[in-house]
Amino acid sequence: MRSEKSMKKLPDETTEKPVEQVSSKTATRNKKPPILEFENVSKEYAGGFVCLDGINFTISKGEFVFVVGRSGAGKSTLVKLMIREQLPSAGKVLFDGVDIAEIPQHEIHLLRRRLGVVFQDFKVLPSKNVFANVAVALEVVDAPKSQIKDIVENVLNLVGIYDKAQSFPAELSGGELQRVAIARALAHEPDLFVADEPTGNIDPESSAQILDVFEKINSMGVAVLMATHDFRVVDRLKQRVVRLEKGKIVSDVAGGKY
Amino acid sequence: MPKALTQTMETVKQEKLFTVSNLVVMILTFLVFGLFLLVEVLAQTALNKLEKEATLTLFFKDEAAESAIMTLKSSIEKDTRVFSVNYVSKADAFEIFKNLNKDEPLLLESVTANVLPASLEIRAHKVGLLAALADEYKTTDGVEGVKFYKDIIDRFNFWRTVLSVGIGVILLILLFVSFSIVVSTIRTAISLRGSEFEILKLVGASDAYVKNPLLHQGMFYGGVSAFVSGAVYAVLIVAGHFSGVLGSLRLSEVVLASDIAVPTLLFPVIMLAFLTVCGLGLGYLSSLSAIKRYLNY
Question: DSSP assignment, residue A107?
Fold first, then answer.
């Protein structure tokens, strides 16, 4: 589904790159090449408010990372920088070795086709049913209809809402809506799956099910970054935890807890 | 049906009221645009006809010898400004007079061939040259007087300009109104579909994927309204050619510019195509303007 152009601009997973040591605690883990690197990234908003300050960390291909911190710690800004919704005030964000600030405006979509992103507010289209909501991700890359049908059915099965394919968002629970968003993010087989507070609007039981889906995605070799302040989620998976406080990384621990 | 057209038709169906009101205003705009073109082309055609038929007539004194007049004719024919020279003898003038007044025998009885002067009818390549030619030849030996239609053409040009400027001003206002209407419609579409566009961008839609349907929507309004207006004029011109006012003119061709003439029945086709292209252009530019302003592209 990816265009040749995008492959040239954004090297694929077969491109080996030297692992950069960004943290003494993470260095030993980074055996796989990095998919995402933050190099001394700062973000300052108008009025002088510093949201992120000197952020350095790397996510390897296939890794699972939690970014935790209180509200206002900078987690969402971190996600916005990853998807190039915003640009850093200083430093570099590298996706698969490419400085995403250098990607021209008319090629940003090629970056986003390699990312799967879900948000706390689901961002589903209320006028389309579940199938159509997921199919959108494939229609934008002009995938053939037969391929769209196969892929959408697969991802709906993967997230466990195949039986709701013809339902509309208004008929779904919060947990189901988040699964729709996850299915849509998975449709174009992302290299990095980014979730910003994905369990923020759903009950604990649904959160656990969503977490199961994330584990499944990660087990398929997709790197997962989940920004959350839900300690139950973090403690359950015992994955790498990067803690943000007032825009700075204060700890980066493998197999950590909230 | 192409995907772009399908998307546009879906949008149009969803926004029926917008579509109808936009089309009405834009059809009005392009009807005025068509009227403007029609006036310009008919005026240009009439002007060309007047210019071709405008002559400078040199009237000779009774004592002027025909040989002297013919010598002068030969010398005038060599003038590069002159298109043609025609000699009208006293006898020819009397024949013309008789033809013109054949229903008035009393008048004909009182006039003889000797009363009417011999003359040279001079046609210039450009009507503007007639005044200079008149000045030059009015003092020639044997010439009693000169006559030409300078005033008629000047007056025609004056009223043509007044009409063109009047319609042109109304046209500019309507074009601006149409432009604003398309911009407002696209802005509304962007506002209503803001979250959808956000999602499309999030899942990797290219800029073109998001903005092309909006561009097509604007082009639909402009193209359809211009085509309808052009079709109205095409029907009127073709019907008028075979009957009524235009029929009595017996125009075999119309003049688009000073040296470009086309057959009368080809003109509505050209006008229809021209208006449609202008409509598509207006729709495209209006949508593009709205997209740049409200969609941050």
Answer: G
Q: CB–CB of B20/B181 below 8 Å?
A: no
Which residue in the block uniquely carries the two structure tokens 């943290």? A23
Residue A121's φ and ψ, nearest 5 degrees, are: -95, 20
Note down the domain range covering B77: 55-148
> For chain B, which ranges sit under pLDDT 70?
1-2, 150-151, 244-251, 258-259, 297
- Let me know: does B21 contact B182? Beta carbons within 8 Å: no
Q: Do A109 and B195 touch (CB under 8 A)?
A: no
Mutation site for A-interface testing, chosen from B193, B201, B203 by largest number of A Cβ within 10 Å: B203
Whether B175 and B231 map to the same domain: the answer is yes
Under a CB-based contact definition with an 8 Å cutoff, are residues A193 and A185 in contact?
yes
The interface predicted TM-score (ipTM) is: 0.79
Domain co-membership, B139 together with B258:
no
Q: Kindly tell me the burial class for residue B250, based on how many C-beta atoms sit within 10 Å of its own C-beta (0-12, 13-18, 19 or more).
A: exposed
Same domain, yes or no: B224 and B182:
yes
- Residue B5 token pair: 């057209």
Find the closest chain A residue to B196 by CA distance. Answer: A125
Residue where the block lists tokens 């040749």: A4
Strand A223-228 and strand A64-68: the pairing is parallel
Model pLDDT for residues B107-157, shown as the tens digit of each residue: 777 777 778 889 999 988 877 778 888 888 888 888 888 887 766 777 777
| Total number of domains constituting chain B | 2
Is the minimum CB–CB distance between A109 and chain B shorter than 8 Å? yes
Residue of A nearest to B194 (CA): A125
Domain boundary pick from B148, B183, B204: B148
For position A128, what pLDDT does the model report? Answer: 93
Share of chain B above pLDDT 90, in %: 31
- Chain B hits for A100, CB-CB cut-off 8 Å, are none
The pTM of this model reads 0.71
